Amino acid sequence: MTAKAYKDIINGFDVEHNSTYLPHGGNTYCNIFAQDVAEACGTPLPTGGCTAMRNALAHNQFPKWYSVTFDQAQSRANDGVPGIAITYDHIAIIRPNDGSVPATKGKVHIAQAGATCYNDTTLSYGWKSARWDEIRFYSWYEVGKPSY
Known about the structure:
Structural class: alpha+beta
Helix content: 25-40%
CATH class: Alpha Beta
Largest sheet: 6 strands, antiparallel
Order of helices and strands: HHHEHEEEEHE
Strand order of the largest sheet: 1-6-2-3-4-5
CATH architecture: Alpha-Beta Complex
Number of strands: 6
Number of domains: 1
Distance between the termini: 16 Å
């Protein structure tokens, strides 16, 4: 998939206005949004909440999703490869940016549902900097595709 196709899939969910993902009654839907985007990309994520998803992804135990660094996650997203940022209580989709790779985690581009829904922002809006060390990044790897 190209970066444009990946962006188009993310944009198609209209996370900032789609009632499926907007917070309601104290509940947020970051996991549902991430799972829906991944499914639309043909790169399914584990089911369940963030804790269950992160536990399933840990140690590269879930097929085709592998741990990467923040800069690899952004670089791969820029190439059209789905990626996520996840903690035990939140998940965001890594989205393509202008083609650059940021020098810090806070500048990684994301789309997220949650207390606030953003279609295109940076990781610094998804998590406070004090929590950046908790964030794990994963990217989809397909047989026959280049690895990083």
